[in-house]
Structures are given as C-alpha cells and as structure tokens.
Design brief:
Length: 363
C-alpha cells in the first residue's frame, strides 16, 4: 500500500484521517454512507428527543427482540428496515441525528427519520403534536452536508455524497391525517388535490437534496395502509379500508411519474422505487407461503385486533412475533421489515422499479 504524505497542518491531517476512514468503508461496504429520511417505519430514535411528540416507542414491549431486549425508539419488536438495509450494504445503522447534537456526524451516515412525520409540514402536528417533517429533515441534511464540506473539502464531500445512498420513506402519515375523523385538510383539499400537493412538495425537496449532491435515491411508495389493524378494526368484518388504500395507490402513481420526470431533469441522478403497496398485498394474499398465520391482528396492543391502543408496557404481546405481519396498530414486525428489505435490496421488477438497490449501487 502506498503511503500518502499527511504531514503539515492539523486540518490536513484531519482530512487524511477522514480519507482513510472512507477508503476503509469502501473496501468493505457497497456505499460509503446511508442517509435516512422518513417516518416511524425507519425511525431509530429521533422521536426520543422530541418533548412534545406523543409518537414514541422508547419503552417496552417495543424492542423485545432487539439485542438485549432493549426499547430504542424503534416502532418494532426488533430491528426495522433501515437496520436491515444498512447491514446488506455493509455499514452500521445510521444513528439518530438528534442523538448527535454537539458531535461530529459519522462518515457512514445519519438518520433524520421521525415517527409521525409527513411530506407536508402540518402532518406530524395534526397526528402526534410534534414530528420532524420532510422539509425539516432536508434542513438537517443540509447541516450535515456543510459539515462534510468542512471535513472533506467540496470535491471530497461531493464524491462521498454521489456514492452514498439516501433512503426516503414518506407518505403514510399524510394520508392518515387526511382521513382521520374531523380532518382539517380534508375540508381544504379534494383527495386528488392532496395527491398533487404531496407530489409537488416532495419533488421540490428531492431537488434540494439533488442540489446538495444526492445522486442515489431509494424511495418507497405508500403501503396498503388501509389494512393496518387500526384501520381494519373500524370494519366489523376486519377487512381493509378501501378508500384510503385507493388514494394511496393514486399517490403512488403520481410519485412514480414524478420520479421519472425528476431523473430526466437531473443529470447523474438514479433511483430505486419500492412498491410497498404491491408487496403488502402480495404478503396478505400469500401469507402462508411466507410463514405468517396472522395478517389482521397486531401482536402488541389492547382490544379489537389489538388496535384499540398502542403497544405500551400495559399491553399484551404475542409469544410468536414471526407469524404476525403487524407488530402494533400501524407497524410491521421485524420479520416483515427484513422480508421487505430483501426485496428493496435485490428484488425483481415486480416490486422494484426501474432497478433495485443492489443495481443502484453499481451504477
């Protein structure tokens, strides 16, 4: 191995250290970093630091299957999709941004994801009093970007970010806010106007990320959220809520068209889109093939379908989490998160378009 002359100033020495770290990461990982923007599906603890938020998971029985059975702020019995995707790439899980205040962000990535967050600024406040919206997460990413420029220099930061992965998981909470009882936004917008507003807002913020150097995006569509236990329990038969599912698919159609257009406008940008909706419907229809026996009821909760209340220390939880699709009234179990992460990383065009993450990393 050639030895680089790193003599000189402290700043030069620091840059050499970071360059060495990046070279080590490149030798063992498929990307130098993963930056996560999203909601509770990929939150690894940011909401622990939001004093007003009522969307928290830093208590039992959350984390019952996490290492040391520790609740961390993940809305899961164990790890979530962000954890599994990082492992596949060969990196540690990106830590919660709010846990790093005052510290230098790790060169391997940061998570800005927040339970209850939406594409639209008002969504988190409507649902859970406080959340980090997509716009605020992009602002936080800007801060990290500036620190990278300081650490690596402009060209080094650009090279780092152009090869890094951005996992972006949004949209579900915006629809929960729209279809909730007494919804303010439902009085202001028709569902189609709301779709258009979500997509146009998302596009502006993705363009901001592109301007900051992001080139490899993993974007997930909204799932069949009308089939979550909290939605099913409102039907006497326990079936899915048709209307919220319908508009979720309409939003996904608009999102896919937007991503295609954005790619054509943005030289060097590539993306992988995960059809979360299709993957969920496939799982419901073929659940036994995948080893699931309970597709409606939450593992942890209270009452009808275990969905009358969130998973708290007072709730009961199922002894076998691996045969349940849902952990609580909204979120999948660790095993479903792992299954979907497999699809995101190396799945076929049945659920990943135009390419999967493995192919995206090779571009």
């Amino acid at each position: 191995m050639a030895i680089t002359d790193c003599g000189g100033t402290r700043a030069t020495l620091l840059m050499c250290v970071f360059a060495f770290i990046i070279s080590v990461c490149k030798a063992h990982a498929a990307a130098p970093a993963v930056y996560v923007l999203g909601d509770s599906l990929v939150d690894v603890g940011n909401n622990n630091y939001l004093p007003l938020s009522i969307a928290k998971a830093n208590f039992p029985h959350n984390g019952v299957d996490f290492p040391n059975h520790k609740p961390t702020g993940r809305f899961s019995n164990g790890e979530n999709a962000a954890d599994f995707l990082a492992k596949k790439i060969g990196l540690p899980t990106s830590p919660a941004y709010l846990s790093l205040i005052g510290a230098t962000p790790p060169i391997t990535g940061v998570s800005f994801a927040s339970g209850g967050a939406g594409i639209l600024n008002e969504t988190g406040g409507f649902l859970f009093k406080q959340a980090i919206s997509l716009a605020q997460q992009v602002d936080y990413f800007t801060v990290v970007h500036d620190k990278l420029v300081h650490q690596l220099g402009p060209s080094g930061a650009q090279a780092h970010l152009s090869k890094s992965l951005l996992l972006i998981v949004f949209g579900s909470n915006d629809w929960f806010a729209y279809f909730r009882v007494g919804s303010i936004v439902a009085k202001q917008y028709t569902p189609q106007q709301y779709v258009d507003r979500m997509v146009s807002t998302f596009k502006v913020l993705l363009k901001t990320l592109y301007g900051l150097g992001a080139r490899k995006l993993v974007v997930t569509g909204v799932g069949a959220i009308g089939c979550c236990p909290i939605q099913r329990k409102e039907n006497r038969t326990g079936e899915c809520k048709v209307e919220i599912n319908y508009w979720s698919t309409k939003y996904n159609d608009g999102l896919k068209m937007m991503l295609q257009g954005l790619k054509s406008e943005s030289p060097g940008m590539n993306y992988a889109y995960f059809d979360t909706y299709g993957a969920m419907i496939n799982l419901f229809q073929n659940h036994e093939t995948y080893g699931y026996t309970e597709i409606k009821e939450a593992c942890c909760g209270v009452g009808n379908l275990n969905a009358d209340a969130p998973c708290t220390p007072l709730a009961i939880y199922c002894p076998n989490r691996k045969n349940h699709i849902f952990w609580d009234l909204y979120h999948p179990t660790e095993s479903v998160a792992s299954l979907f992460s497999d699809l995101i990383y190396s799945g076929s065009q049945q659920f990943m378009v135009p390419i999967n993450v493995e192919q995206l990393l090779a571009v």
